[in-house]
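Translate sequence into C-alpha cells.
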Amino acid sequence: MGGGRARDHMPSTLRTRGPFRLLFAGQALSVVGDRITPIAIAFAVLGLGNATDLGLVLAASGVPFALFAIAGGVVSDRVGRRRVMIASDVARAVVQATVAVLLLTGSAEVWMLVVLSAVYGTAAAVFMPALIGLIPQTVPPDRLQEANALLGFTRSIASVAGPALAGILIAIGGPGDAIAVDAVSFALSAACLIALRPDRSAAVADAEEQDGFATRLRSGWREVRRRPWLASGLGAMAAYHVFVLPAVWILGPALAESDLDGASSWAIIVACFGLGTIAGNLLALRLSIRRPVLVAAVALVGAATQAVIIGSGLGTAGIAILEFPAGIAVSLFFTLWDTSIQEQVPPAAVSRVSSYDFAVSLGLMPLGMAVAGPVAAAAGLQTTLIAMSAVGIVAALAWLAVPDVRRVRRPGRPAPMPPPPAPTRIEPDHGILSADTDGLRFERSVPSSER
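Result follows.
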C-alpha cells in the first residue's frame, strides 16, 4: 500500500521503465562523484605543493573545456550522443583511477596531476553537449521540463551530499580514497549508458551527415543566430558566468572571513542557497510554463543578484535568507533554458547548439576567476561584489528586453487522432513524436525558445 502511494507521487519519467531511468541513475551516481573530486583534489595538491600548484591543476581542467566544448557538440551530433558520453565516462573513470593509484601509492607529483586534469577536462567538455542532446531521446516531448528538473534536482542534492561525503572519505582514508570513489561512479554511469537504448523515433536524421567538421560547426552557429532569444541569451549567460559566479565563489568566502564569522557563516549561506536550488527544481517539476524563455530571463535576473546579496552588509542571517530565493531562480533558469533548447532547436543540432552555451559560460568562467581577486584588492570586496553582480543583472535585463524572448511559446501537444473505423487496425500511439512530426514542429516563421 505504502509502496503504491509512493509510486503515485513519483514523477512519471521515473515510474515507467525506460531509457530515462537509466540515464537518471547514471547521472545521480556520477554527479555525487563530481562534487567529491574538487575537495579531494584540493587536499591532494596542497599536500604535494602550494596554492599556485592547485591553481595550475584546476586551470589544466578548465582550459580544455573551453577549447573542446564546441568541437564536442559537433562530434556528438555526428557519431551519436550516447557513444560520446560512454567514451567520456570511461576516459574519466580511467583518469580518476590513475590519480587514485598515484595518491594511494605516494607516487603522485604535481605535473602528473596537471596532465591528468587536462585529459579529464577534455572528456568533460564533450560530455555535457552530448547529455543535453540525449535527454530528448529518452523522454516524450511533453516531459522534457520534468526530466531536466529531475537531473537538476540530483545536482542540487549532490552539492550538499558530495562535499559531506568527501570530508568523511578523506578523514577515514585520504584524498586518494575519495577520488577512487569518483572513478567507480564514472564506471557505473558508463554501465547505465551502455544498457540505455534511446528512442530512435525521437531523433531526426541529420541532412548534413556527410558534411565536414567545419560545415557542421557553421551550421550550428546558424541555428543560434536565427533565434534572437538564443543568441542574446548566450550573452547574458556569459555575463553571469564571467562576473557573477566568480564573484560569489572567489570573493564570497573572503568576505565571510573578513566581515562575518568565517567558515561557519559561509556554510550557512551556501546551505540556504542549496536549499533554494532544491526548491527551484521541485517547482520546475510541478509548474506548467507556456513561455519558458521569458520566465528563464526573469529567473536569470534573480540569479544574478547572488553577489550583490553577499556584498549587501546584511549579516549572515540576512544574506542566507536572501540567497534562498536566489537559489530558486538559478534552478528555474537552468531547467527552462535547457528545456527550451531541446524543444526549439532541430533535434539533429541540439548538441552543437548547446556546445556554444557551455563554451561561453563554463569555458569563459576562468577569466572572471582570474580577475575577481585583483579587482577586489583594488576596489574593495563589497564594491566588487556589487559591481560584478550589477553587470550580470544588466545583461539579464537586456536579454529580457529582446522581443523574441516574450514571443516564444512551448510547442503544443499534438491533437489526438480521431478514432479509426471499426475494421481498421492501427498500432497504438506511445506518445513519442516521429521524425515527420518533428520536422513540422520546427517549421515556423518566427524563431523561438530554448534553454
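Note: The chain has two domains: 17-196, 225-411+433-451.
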